[in-house]
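quick one if you have a minute, typing this from the bus. theres a chain ive been looking at and ive put its sequence and its fold in token form underneath. please have a look and point out which stretches look like helix strand or loop to you. anything you notice is useful, everything is just below.

***
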Amino acid sequence: MILFDNAVKYANVRGSISLLLKKSHHHVILSITNTGEGIPVEHIHKVFDRFYRTDPSRSRTSGSYGLGLAIAKTIIEQHGGKISVQSILSERTTFSIELPTINS
């Protein structure tokens, strides 16, 4: 939900959001992509840090504190997964989650 909420919050006014779920060997991969400003390359490695915001002025207008992605990363890692982000400025941003499948 955190990633979906961010995708909605940061999508263009007439933008789009897409979800992709696939199984790969012993993992499930969920990717959430939105069109929008994108994340500058110099900020990519910091987006999962607590309280980090690429544009501090947006926190006043959006009411957020820069905790969502840090919380998402912690939850995913506690379940043995990984999270990553790819972004193209002025085009799109994709967050991908990889979680191990439960073996019966």
